[in-house]
Amino acid sequence: MVAQLPQVKKFFYRRFGFAQVSNVVWVKCVSCSCEDTKVIDSRVSEEGSSIRRRRSCLKCGYRFTTYERLEEVPLYVVKRTGEKQLFDRAKIISGLQSAAKGRPVEDSVLIEIAERVEDDMRLTGNDVTSNQVGHAVLNQLRSIDEVTYMRFASVYKNFDAAADFKRELALLEKEARN
Length: 178
Ligand SMILES: [Zn+2]
Description:
Blueprint: H1 6-16, E1 19-21, E2 24-26, E3 37-44, E4 50-57, E5 63-69, E6 76-78, E7 84-86, H2 89-99, H3 107-124, E8 127-129, H4 130-141, H5 146-155, H6 161-177
Parallel strand pairs: 6-8
Antiparallel strand pairs: 1-2, 3-4, 4-5, 6-7
């Protein structure tokens, strides 16, 4: 996982001395650049916007302090037209809500799906395609509710139309038989 994000990590190391994507944090030893460090002590700042951590390098024993600030790497969704938009979790949630209308699916489940998809996408890279987002949502939905799944698949505009839809349908039918 670490190897998939060299650019993000480099950027963050340079700017903040630590790298963070979603909930994953990497820290390099200030002295020897080793990535195996241990947190000795953590303290949240008074205003709650940063965390001060006292760390110790597992290789050379050097002790140093990092200040972690909550800052997200922007995640972009590239549409098929080439247009780039910031990833919008709320948009996914509202799409899921209309697909789940009248179905016995809790809002909290839909919110969780959107969060999980965002996490997956952030681990994929800084730019993802709308197709990747659509597939990730459908992957999560498949085991939740069949009707919601089919509705979402059919209204998902950037979903690669007929071919993908048929394949998804076949998959679903296969799973239903098992
Ligand atoms: Zn070290």
